[in-house]
Amino acid sequence: MKPGEFEYLASFLKGRSGLILNADKMYLVESRLQPVARKHDLPGLSELIWELRLGRDQKLTQDIMEAMTTNETFFFRDKTPYDTLRNELIPFFQKARSTKQLRIWSAAASTGQEPYSIAMILKEMSAALQGWRTDIIATDISREVLEKSRAGMYSQFEVQRGLPIQMLVKYFKQIGEMWQIDSGIRAMVQFKEGNLLANFDGLGSFDIIFCRNVLIYFDQETKKDVLERMARLLPEEGVLILGAAETVLGLTNTLKVVKGLRGVYCKNSEAVTARVQASAMRAPKPLSVAG
Amino acid sequence: MKSCLVVDDSRVIRKVARQILEDLHFEISEAVDGMEALSFCQKKMPDAILLDWNMPVMNGIDFLRQLRQEKNGDTPVVVFCTTENDIKHITEAIQAGANEYIMKPFDREIIETKFLEVGLI
């Protein structure tokens, strides 16, 4: 790929999805876009980028975006945020919300493992949440990924990454070589197409936003902008959960660290911190149902 | 350092599993079938057992049932690792006392997340 073509692709992707593409990712670009070129009967990447510039084929544009946005994820990824959700956040909101409503947003949900993991936790806690209305909204930029998420079909490899075997037995059905998540769990999650760079105020307000391992692909300005706009959807005690390698520090003052809860941020962090510290006296319950 | 007994009749699988688990700082021992694994455990219980299902002499499920009857036989964390990939086998394994279940083919990431799941890492 010629430098000019790479530059064009980089600026196109940044404009459309916020993805930052450095020159050291050349090999990645080539390996991911070769199959797209073949699919569209184009002889090579130069022709592919040319077609992209002309912009007359929407399907091609969509395919390029999907090939370049990373979708790597697995069930209960990183474990800690899910332990926090189960042991700290849900008990906190149970006390804080007299409306008995809980709204959770899984932003950039990729192939659905994150929102479904959240749904399984809520399901496991259904005795404690009796009489509660819980909404899980999952958004992603990619249509192909959303289709896969809605179907809830996963390969043998995917269901073995992070998912405890008891959860597999309990919530999945084997269909040929694939495993499909239970229709009851699927019904708990609403999937919507959504771009984090565009206005997402229409989603309404949330008690908990999961936005993990997404910001790392954005530049500083974009990170700032996304965080500020997410903060607008959070009430005073609403929380944002970021990935292990991400932070709000140096990006926004609207959201603050919740002490004692790794990766959790809030506008009024004192209120949440106080409650969490009070409950830290209790022994933490393990998330795992294994062992 | 935690110990892990790898039980599989395939030398290739034992070798791959050993490499992955040594990287995760386990001290590895090997057994080629359930009988050999059982006599190993009767001398000293390992912290973890990675267990194949189909093996000559004594298969994995029979070994597991025997193991759980032994003195201190409830202490090792047992992770099945087999080509048997249907709900019937998985349920049978859990009922026999397996802590986790890996369906072959596996990779480094699957072993790692499963071992993490049962608290071995």
Radius of gyration of chain A: 20 Å
What is the total domain count of chain A? 2
Question: Strand fraction band of chain A?
Answer: 5-15%
Under the CATH scheme, which class of the largest domain in chain A?
Answer: Alpha Beta
CATH architecture of the largest domain in chain A: 3-Layer(aba) Sandwich
What is the CATH superfamily of the largest domain in chain A? Vaccinia Virus protein VP39
- Can you give the mean pLDDT of chain B? 96
Q: What are the segments of chain A in which pLDDT stays under 50 over at least 5 consecutive residues?
A: 286-291
List the helices and strands and how they pair.
The complex is a heterodimer of chains A (291) and B (121).
Chain A: H1 3-17, H2 26-39, H3 45-54, H4 58-68, H5 80-96, E1 101-106, H6 113-124, E2 133-140, H7 143-151, E3 153-154, H8 165-171, E4 172-175, E5 178-181, H9 183-186, E6 189-193, E7 208-211, H10 220-232, E8 239-242, E9 256-257, E10 264-266, H11 269-279
Chain B: E1 2-7, H1 11-23, E2 26-31, H2 34-43, E3 48-51, H3 60-69, E4 77-82, H4 87-95, E5 100-103, H5 108-117
Parallel strand pairs in B: 1-2, 1-3, 3-4, 4-5
Helix pairs in contact in B: 2-3
Written overview of the protein:
The complex is a heterodimer of chains A (291) and B (121). Chain A has helices at 3-17, 26-39, 45-54, 58-68, 80-96, 113-124, 143-151, 165-171, 183-186, 220-232, 269-279, and strands at 101-106, 133-140, 153-154, 172-175, 178-181, 189-193, 208-211, 239-242, 256-257, 264-266. Chain A is α/β, with parallel strands linked by helices and 291 residues long. In chain A, the strands form 2 sheets. Chain A has a 7-stranded mixed beta sheet with strand order 6-2-1-7-8-10-9, covered by helices on one side. Chain A has a 3-stranded antiparallel beta sheet with strand order 3-5-4. The longest helix of chain A is centred in the N-terminal third of the chain and has 17 residues, at 80-96. Residues 286-291 of chain A have low confidence and may be disordered. By secondary structure, chain B is α/β, with parallel strands linked by helices. In chain B, 43% of the residues lie in helices and 21% in strands. Chain B has helices at 11-23, 34-43, 60-69, 87-95, 108-117; strands at 2-7, 26-31, 48-51, 77-82, 100-103. In chain B, strands 2-1-3-4-5 form a 5-stranded parallel beta sheet, sandwiched between helices. In chain B, α2 packs parallel to α3. Chain B is globular. At the A-B interface, α8 of A face α4, β5 and α5 of B.
